[in-house]
Specification:
There is one protein chain. By secondary structure, this protein is an alpha/beta fold. The protein has 9 helices and 8 strands. The longest helix is centred in the N-terminal third of the chain and has 14 residues. The protein is globular and about 55 Å long.
């Protein structure tokens, strides 16, 4: 493989604590009770609009406008997107090694592009990526294959010689729809058992993923 595209939340970054904090603040602004970290984490994967809708639904907030709640959430999250978030152990070393070995790297996430870039900047990850495709970069979002196809296209890379790395059911479905090899991080935010997801490679550490990628390196 010559190009690697990564999901963000639950794959490269343990971002659930900051997403939870923004959700709690948003709910509080509308006089709604907080939700647990585990509950909000279970809502991650389909983008912030879906997360906000699920938070409102869980709180029984039938009279709160989704648009108002979404704007409120984005304001809180953009102001403080990475205080509690951290790259998973081994991510930074992996990115350094992959760049050193000439891999093209991209991000394909359902988080909006502006929020994605803000998180990447604050965690000093943005320098490693040539392309960032967010949930609002195209008319469709994952699991539609279009965002992943666009990421490889903008990298100038052949998706048949690439790898998508993610942690969730949405990521597995996206890779399958795009006919792209998929590596599943077993330590992310998925809810489905690993054996029920279609993956070329399953890993529990980024050291293992690095070894796998380098061992399977091909020329484009």
């Amino acid at each position: 493989m010559s190009a690697i595209v990564f999901d963000l939340d639950g794959t490269m970054v343990h971002s659930a604590p900051d997403l939870h904090a923004a959700a709690v603040r948003m709910l509080g602004d509308f006089g709604l009770p907080p939700l647990s970290l585990g509950k909000v984490t279970s809502f991650i994967g389909n983008g912030v609009p879906v997360l906000v809708a699920k938070c409102l639904g869980e709180s029984g907030a039938a009279d709160v406008s989704h648009d108002d709640a979404l704007a409120c959430f984005r304001e809180h999250y953009m102001a403080d997107p990475a205080t509690l978030s951290r790259p998973f152990p081994g991510v930074l070393h992996m990115l350094h090694i992959l760049r050193h070995n000439g891999y093209q790297l991209g991000i394909c996430t359902n988080k909006s592009a502006d929020l994605t870039l803000e998180v990447l900047k604050r965690l000093d990850l943005v320098v490693y990526f040539d392309v960032v495709i967010g949930g609002d970069s195209l008319a469709s979002r994952k699991p539609d294959p279009a965002p992943l196809l666009a990421a490889f296209d903008r990298l100038g890379a052949d998706i048949s010689n690439g790898l998508y790395v993610g942690d969730s059911e949405v990521d597995a479905a996206t890779a399958a729809a795009a006919h792209c090899d998929f590596a599943l991080f077993s330590g992310g935010y998925r809810k489905t058992p690993v054996e029920q997801l279609q993956a070329r490679y399953v890993f529990d550490s980024f050291e293992a993923l690095t070894d796998y990628i380098l061992t399977n390196k091909k020329t484009a």
